Amino acid sequence: MMKLNTSHALLKESIESYQEKVNELHKVIFERTGAGNDFMGWVDWAETYDKAEFERILQVAEKVKDKAEVLLVCGIGGSYLGARAAIEMIQGLYSGNKTEVIFVGNTFSSTYIAQVLKHIQDKSVVMNVISKSGTTTETALAFRVLREFMENKYGKEECKERIIATTDKARGTLKALADKEGYETFVIPDDIGGRYSVITPVGLVPLAIMGVDIKKIMAGLYDAYKELNTADLSKNPAYQYAVCRRILQNQGYDVEMFVAYEPQLAMLAEWWKQLLGESEGKDGKGILPDSANFSTDLHSLGQFIQEGKKVLFETILEVENPTEDLLIPTDAENSDQMNYLAGKSYDWVNKMACLGTIEAHEVTGGVPNLIISIPDMKEYSFGYLCYFFFIATAMTCYMIDINPFNQPGVEIYKKNMFRLLGKPTK
Ligand code: PA5
């Protein structure tokens, strides 16, 4: 289903030489004996997820869909990026969906929230607020403002039909507030952390409301769980990828640039950056995850990649079949001199740009390129891809003795910000 091509990766060690290490860590992952093992619910989630809750997600989505001219999704980090990545990947950027999704609660920008408020003023709004802790300031603040807007517009009674909370099953202020107000609630499992949570109600609720087929996502996730549950490096592209990252960092590359040739994958890159960056960037270790969208960024960052300091390798996410394609028309006058492409497909041009760029970067520029292929940008592929990157992240982090499931560093800005905001310490 997903393949890794290392023929342009300029590897100086063989992947197979890591087989013994991978055998050992594969056991650590599947037997859940490593660091952070209380956050490994994602490992078999494709099998163990709450089926009744899944059905309820489908029912609630069906119920609110018609009301949702605008769906507000209020959350940040792991409670935001996955849903946005999936919606954009699967539906594209101009899908014609009758529901417009707007992501809020992921910034303190006053201009942003004020403009959202103006934009939704006369629209029919449904909101899904998502926060595991229930106390994240960006999310809680936006929720307060938007809840007030909705209560003024619809009254508290109608808000019960329009506000859905996804949060911890028992703890936290959001859970208490949702229960008090009578909102529909969905549970974020205790043992799945934010950046691994798109496969739980965190991602599935907004996806279902937007009309994404979440059963197909779970089918892709399940197949990946079955197929990637092997330590055999020759059969497991996710572990091959995990090993390649380590080999390339050993060769001195401290930056990984995630490259896609589809603008609708830009948010997937953001999701991937959180997954790798928050999981691995600890104890002065890790590879900095960066991203680019080609060919757009070949006209900007391309110069650095080609001829700048040799700090990075590229990981290309290649899409075999585009969601849509079209043929380039012939122009009788050929005044733009583009007739040499007449009759060719747009996607063929994109693929030729990719091949030419790999050659430029690898052969001329000496920049290693890993190529991960997915068949398409549909639901099943998204579900599969999630598992691929989850398990690759666990493996690649354990290889350098990093706990992939905590994020102690993100607390420090909060502490300083709370002091400046005068938050009561209790
Ligand atoms: O990966 C993570 O754990 C974080 O990005 C969280 O998802 C993010 O901080 C939001 O947290 P919460 O869902 O508690 O509001």
UniProtKB/TrEMBL annotation:
Q: What is its main location?
A: cytoplasm
The UniProt GO MF terms for this protein read: carbohydrate derivative binding; glucose-6-phosphate isomerase activity; monosaccharide binding
Enzymatic reactions: alpha-D-glucose 6-phosphate = beta-D-fructose 6-phosphate
Query: Looking at the UniProt record for this protein, which Gene Ontology cellular component terms does it annotate, in alphabetical order?
Result: cytosol
Subcellular localization is given as:
Cytoplasm
- Matching SUPFAM superfamilies, A to Z? SIS domain (SSF53697)
Pathway per the UniProt entry: Carbohydrate biosynthesis; gluconeogenesis; Carbohydrate degradation; glycolysis; D-glyceraldehyde 3-phosphate and glycerone phosphate from D-glucose: step 2/4
Q: Which of UniProt's keywords are assigned here?
A: Coiled coil, Cytoplasm, Gluconeogenesis, Glycolysis, Isomerase, Membrane, Transmembrane, Transmembrane helix
Which InterPro entries does the record associate with it? G6P_Isomerase, Phosphoglucose_isomerase_CS, SIS_dom_sf, SIS_PGI_1, SIS_PGI_2
Q: What does this protein do?
A: Catalyzes the reversible isomerization of glucose-6-phosphate to fructose-6-phosphate.
Which NCBIfam families does its entry note? Answer: PRK14097.1 (NF010697)
Annotated protein name in UniProt:
Glucose-6-phosphate isomerase
| Gene name tied to this protein | pgi
